[in-house]
Design brief:
The complex is a heterotrimer of chains A (270), B (336) and C (249). Chain A is mainly alpha-helical. Chain A is 72% helix and 3% strand. The chains are: A mainly alpha (270), B mainly alpha (336), C alpha/beta (249).
């Protein structure tokens, strides 16, 4: 049941990273959020065989990871979480798409191989884009960014409340499961006879907690209207950051940069 | 099953994101007009609860394996459909951003699959319809089971449709459907049983909770079908537009080859694969894409371009790597 | 008189009679200890002081303003409550946001809120914690910050539910020193009788929803009959030396 504890630790680790003070951390959250979303959109918009064209986008994670002082190893471990499902789907491409795409002497590279790699690349790019945003931006700043992007305050408040009680509930659940496993002597999870009462008890406590949180809110003047924090303005350098990346992404999308580079190198222009 | 960004097209991601934003705005309005300010902390704390509860492994009797809770159905039972939907959305957003589980562009798809179906379809049409204050325990179990299975079947159907419409996976629809629906049948059974046992326990311990926390959002069935229709048209429209504006996968792939090679069975790699395929009988409708390219039908591309592309790709990768090393070097320099 | 309770009774929806005919008058700047066994009605009584529970019969008023539904906004400004579990009270994503929550709800301008937050954190000597998320705080720090969230509303009356629960000895001592310094009228519900001896001149014993004693702290704690009736024990400090006095069990 260490999954619970691990998740809690992971949250804390991300929070620790987000509170570093590097160049990237100082960029306004709204700018970073917009860059992230555009990167994801551009990445996904590449066709399924655009293996070569998509490669320059890798420069984004390389630069951010270095400037934000993040460990690559740690990151790759995190990226692996969602991989199995994507791999499963991508593997079938190897299978079903066997049209030759490129032939080197005897070895033919099939369309499936290419689209398989493209899926993996897209996966790495999109997932690392999200993680890099979270690892360089504290949640409070992110919520103000969401506010600026016109997300209703009610939803933002609900989201941050969920996040806030995540660590509390993870800890509570972990303790409960520890107590359970000490007396159950079984390894395969919670037995079905106690499903209802074990989770039900936790749920009852959670409901009681919600009640107390609500009381604490009431005591401080809460009237059902969600609250907001003051927004921070985008500085000139934030705009530069935003524009530079967006220009780069658009350039990569419109031109096949590696091919141009390769043509120059192999003299393809002659 | 959380959809990843890598598996969807921008059009599908966009359509479902728009739909989900619409649904969320509608749900937020509903929740706020209930004027029950208790709802907000309850949603927050219950969202965290479901998140934690998802990590509890439930041993499945007689199988030696274990399953876990999804939460959409449970949340709508506890909070009502609108608040349940928003809470599920918050959980999925946190999972996507903080745990890299499910894509960010794919959030619309995931919230739709795991939030919309259980909260707005299955809960009002199945659960609330058949279960009330006086329902027996057996009935609660039975209906929860049906509701959870149905919800997950719809959800995984959503995954299949979204993936296929995005045109990135080559998996034939039939195989994909059989695979996904059968996996989710099993997941649905666990979800249903877990939800039922929690609900039965809760209603026994706190009978006063056995009523909708919030009066059912007055979803008229007409409205529901109408919005379904609109969505279907939207997806269909976008898909057909996409299909017509972009050549399908095969053509794309042929665009890259020089057009002279006959590909089937020529390479050893391919032969081995073919042998392996014959042994692999689990996918009966497996169908080798055996289309012979007709000479001249596909535009043949100068092989030199592709070669330059490959070289360039290698160079770009090298460059990116170098960039990383240089940055690292300078960082160390400045640190001392 | 800053707080007057007149013949207050309360019955929970499930039928449990939690308070029976409580009457109490508290002077401005008084510090009162509320003690009693588990389930005696301490928490229920506190919840009436901030209008989370409303009297089934009888009345409660703060500075002459009765606690009824339409006065709640005014009441909650004047009475600040510190909850037993800081995790229930610290619901925002970081300390500063949490302390700002109350003032923001009052519609104070952002600039003024920032000032109030700094002031409130300074009062509990926790300025350095401002940007921390709540789960990174120790138990003692959480307690201090909880108090700051309440002080930010500038209340005249402070109500504490088990303030010293789950604190280590040093954190507990710091808390006591902080509470001694706060000038507001204070009501402290606790099982920590030594804390009551330190802070409260006057003590109330609750038993089964009734006040069975109301008087000077030292007098009450020196009355064995009364303590027994309230299912209490003499504060440790007032018991004899552990070596020469006989063991109780």
């Amino acid at each position: 049941m260490s999954k619970l504890i691990e998740s809690g630790l992971e949250l804390r680790e991300l929070e620790r990273l987000a509170n570093k003070k590097t160049l990237i951390h100082q960029v306004n959250a709204t700018a970073k959020l917009v860059v992230t979303l555009i990167l994801i959109g551009i990445t996904v918009s590449f066709s399924k065989y655009a293996l070569i064209e998509i490669i320059p986008l890798l420069i984004y994670p390389v630069i951010i990871m270095n400037l934000a002082d993040l460990s690559t190893k740690h990151f790759f471990k995190k990226i692996l979480v969602g991989l199995p499902f994507v791999l499963l789907i991508a593997f079938f491409n190897l299978w079903y798409d066997q049209t030759a795409w490129l032939i080197f002497g005897k070895v033919s590279i099939t369309g499936g191989m290419v689209s398989f790699l493209v899926i993996l690349l897209k996966f790495i790019l999109t997932v690392s884009a999200g993680l890099l945003l979270i690892a360089t931006t504290p949640l409070t700043e992110l919520t103000t960014a969401l506010l600026r992007l016109k997300i209703p305050p009610f939803l933002i408040t609900q989201l941050s409340l969920t996040y806030r009680y995540l660590s509390v509930l993870l800890e509570e659940t972990a303790t409960l499961l520890q107590a359970y496993s000490l007396r159950s002597f079984k390894k395969t999870g919670v037995q079905y006879q106690v499903w209802g009462s074990l989770v039900g008890q936790l749920l009852l406590r959670t409901l009681a907690r919600a009640e107390r949180v609500h009381q604490a809110m009431l005591c401080r003047g809460f009237q059902g209207i969600a609250f907001t924090r003051n927004k921070s303005q985008l500085q000139l350098c934030d705009w530069y950051y935003l524009c530079a990346w967006v220009c780069f992404f658009v350039l990569v999308r419109l031109l096949n940069l590696p091919e141009i580079l390769g043509m120059i190198f192999t003299g393809g222009f002659r | 099953m959380h959809m990843a960004d890598a598996l969807i097209s921008p059009a599908i991601g966009g359509v479902f994101a728009a739909t989900t934003i619409g649904l969320a705005a509608y749900a937020a309005k509903k929740v706020q007009t209930q004027l029950d300010e208790k709802q907000l902390p309850l949603m927050g704390v219950l969202g965290a609860f479901v998140f934690a509860a998802q990590m509890i492994n439930f041993a499945i009797p007689g199988t030696g394996s274990s399953g876990h809770l999804g939460g959409g159905l449970l949340l709508s039972i506890l909070l009502g459909p609108a608040a349940g939907f928003l809470t599920m959305a918050a959980i999925l957003i946190i999972q996507a951003f903080f745990f890299a589980d499910g894509g960010i562009l794919a959030l619309g798809c995931n919230i739709f699959n795991l939030g919309f179906f259980p909260c707005f379809i299955v809960y009002p049409l199945i659960f609330r319809h058949w279960v009330n204050q006086n329902s027996s325990k057996t009935r609660i179990f039975l209906i929860s089971l049906i509701a959870a299975i149905l919800g997950l079947q719809l959800g995984s159907l959503g995954v299949v449709i979204q993936t296929k419409l995005s045109g990135i996976s080559e998996l034939p629809v039939g195989t994909f459907l059989i695979l996904m629906q059968s996996i989710h049948l099993a997941i649905g059974v666990v979800e249903g049983l877990v939800t039922a046992s929690i609900v039965s326990f809760l209603w026994q311990a706190r009978p006063e909770l056995n009523q909708p926390v919030m009066p059912l959002v007055n979803l008229s069935t007409k409205k529901l079908w109408l919005s379904f229709l609109v969505l279907a048209l939207l997806v269909g429209g976008v898909f057909s537009w996409f299909a017509s504006s972009q050549p399908d996968g095969l053509e794309w792939s042929m665009f890259r080859t020089s057009g002279q090679e006959e590909f089937t069975g020529k390479s050893t790699w391919h032969q081995k694969l073919g042998e392996f395929q014959e042994k692999f009988a689990a996918l009966p409708d497996y169908n080798l894409k055996n289309v012979q390219p007709v000479e001249g039908k596909y535009p043949s591309v100068d092989g030199g371009t592709s070669f330059a592309g490959v070289v360039g790709a290698g160079l770009t990768l090298l460059l990116a790597g170098l960039l990383g090393i240089v940055l690292k070097f300078f960082k160390k320099r400045t640190a001392y | 008189m800053s707080l007057v309770i007149n013949n207050l009774s309360y019955q929970y929806p499930n039928g449990k009679q939690a308070l029976r005919g409580i009457s109490l008058a508290v002077e401005t700047h008084e510090t009162i200890g509320i003690v009693g066994a588990n389930g005696a009605g301490k928490s229920t009584l506190l919840l009436h002081l901030v209008g989370i529970l409303l009297a089934s019969s009888g009345e409660v008023s703060i500075n002459g303003v009765p606690i009824i539904k339409k006065n709640l906004r005014e009441i909650r400004r004047q009475v600040g409550m510190v909850f037993q579990n800081p995790d229930d009270q610290l619901f925002m994503s970081n300390v500063a946001a949490d302390v700002a929550f109350g003032p923001q709800n009052l519609g104070i301008t952002p600039a003024a809120v920032t000032e109030i937050v700094a002031e409130a954190l300074k009062e509990v000597a926790a300025e350095h914690l401002a940007e921390r998320p709540p789960y990174q705080l120790s138990g003692g720090e959480k307690r201090l910050v909880s108090i700051a969230t309440v002080l930010a509303l500038k209340p005249e009356i402070l109500v504490f539910d088990e303030p010293s629960a789950a604190l280590d000895p040093l954190a507990r001592r710091r808390l006591i020193q902080l509470l001694a310094k706060l000038p507001q009228t204070k009501l402290i519900a606790t099982h920590d009788l030594d804390l009551v001896v330190d802070l409260c001149e006057r003590t109330i014993i609750l038993s089964e929803g009734q006040i069975i004693a109301d008087g000077l702290t030292l007098e009450i704690f020196n009355d064995p009959e009364l303590l027994k009736l309230g299912q209490l024990e003499k504060p440790l400090r007032m018991q004899g030396c552990p070596i020469c006095s006989p063991k109780i069990c």
